[in-house]
Amino acid sequence: MSKVVTFNRTGGPEVLEVIDVEVQAPAAREVQIRVHAIGLNRAEIMYRNGQYVIDPEFPARLGYEAAGVVEAVGENVEGFARGDLVSVIPSFMFNEYGMYGELVNAPVHAVVKHPDNLSFAEAAASWMMYVTAYGALIEYGNLQAGQNIIIRAASSSVGLAAIQIANMLGAKPVALTRTSEKREMLLKAGAAAVIATAEQDMVAEINRATNNEGVHMVFDPVGGPDVAKLTKIMAPQGMYFQYGALDSRDMLVPVFDILGKHLTLRGYELFEITTDAEKMARAKSFVSEGLRSGKLKPVIDKTFRLEDIADAHRYMEANGQVGKIIVTIE
């Protein structure tokens, strides 16, 4: 028997239940994992609320990210054995698998061995955010040393990952955050400059931070009307990656900015990387080396116990965290 988190109706954190279930042996191409830590993901909030790209099938499971120890492997699984330290990267749907539990099965393509210099909490905090940032900045964006990159919602786990990766490449990460409350933290995290968009003239401050050179890349989970201000100050051939919609209003983009500067604006999501074997392999290699060398260091905001999963969801919904929220299992 294993404790798992489930819910039988959409709604707030109060719908989450911790129950005991019997976990089946791993099927072919599956890895069974004894979970030690779980990373929370905003998609899980949306799924619980009934606002995700798929509707819950009750009783519904949750969980994209976890780290633990291999308990068993199914048929046709190569490269993994009982006792391996592993992490799970989001590359499946909640109606297929859920990582909120003491013992879980995961598809082998989503499992990666993590460097042994990481704690389970650090491992659970790492893969989603670094692979997400890697895909836009490196796989598709080819960010180069000396280029300027704007990172919106920079205090999120993915935002912090993008700051670290930009610094690894020798690029200049300019962090955008709503207020100045997180300025010092973002500077310590490696931002070359921090702009509080609710308190400062965003365009003027970005121009100052980039010496009026223009922005070569924007990495944005927000969207909304301010996209027009950002495209205005982008450099020729600049790339704009929209990977979320925290502001659900339509994006307003001046057509002559796109035409005159030959800008590329594209939607981007993690699954573009994690569902493509070749791209996933490159991402795993890059992130593994960064974690092993210490150049990539996950930031953990707060940890909760599995039995307090509802409180962990409430904390995420309050939007006050800096870095990753982790749930630990003894």
From TrEMBL:
SMART domains: PKS_ER. The keyword Protein biosynthesis does not apply. Keywords: NADP, Oxidoreductase. CDD domains: MDR2. Residues 11-327 form the Enoyl reductase (ER) domain. InterPro entries: ADH-like_C, ADH-like_N, ER, GroES-like_sf, NAD(P)-bd_dom_sf. It holds the Pfam family ADH_N. GO terms for molecular function: NADPH binding; oxidoreductase activity, acting on NAD(P)H. This is Alcohol dehydrogenase. The lineage of its organism: Bacteria, Pseudomonadati, Pseudomonadota, Gammaproteobacteria, Enterobacterales.
